[in-house]
Amino acid sequence: MAHSLESAAANALRLVLERIEVAVHQAGRSSSQVRLVAVSKTKSVSVIKEVYDAGHRHFGENYVQELIDKAPQLSNDIQWHFIGHLQSNKAKNLVANVPNLYMVESVDSTKMLANCREEICTALGIREEGCELSMGMSNDFELAIHMGSTNIRVGSTIFGAREYPAKQ
Ligand SMILES: *Cc1c(COP(=O)(O)O)cnc(C)c1O
Known about the structure:
Blueprint: H1 8-26, E1 35-39, H2 45-53, E2 58-61, H3 64-70, E3 79-82, H4 88-97, E4 101-104, H5 113-124, H6 141-146, E5 151-154, H7 156-159
Helix pairs in contact: 3-4
Bound molecules: pyridoxal-5'-phosphate (PLP).
């Protein structure tokens, strides 16, 4: 029956979690130090719900309007990560409409983030361990775990390839 069949996305989530376990172990880190953000941009509410039902709670979106549309259709214990470019005039709208927004990860520049963290922490006078690093996507999350990432953002490996509407 339906409940005995794991959805493709739930199955893919499980495989990603297993790969994270291996990478974390090899890097000599603990799995509590690495958070998996399931990137659901362009994906339907129903497939997000399948991954939610498999026990996952951290999801990422990178378009303000898409997140504002989806969030109320899904459980409010989801912890949403906004991972796109956030224009300052849209920030207020996002916060007002997504009460369960958990984190905004600015991803304007991806060049040598690991070094960037060191420089930023030094400049701010905070310990590096107290500063999160969001690095790693479907193609390189294991490497990112080795490099100290605390947030890996995996989309297509969980949800399948994204389909964008054809350009006119
Ligand atoms: C789409 C997206 C991802 C996920 O990419 P995949 O290659 O599908 O895992 C991660 N981070 C950001 C900022 C994205 O926009």
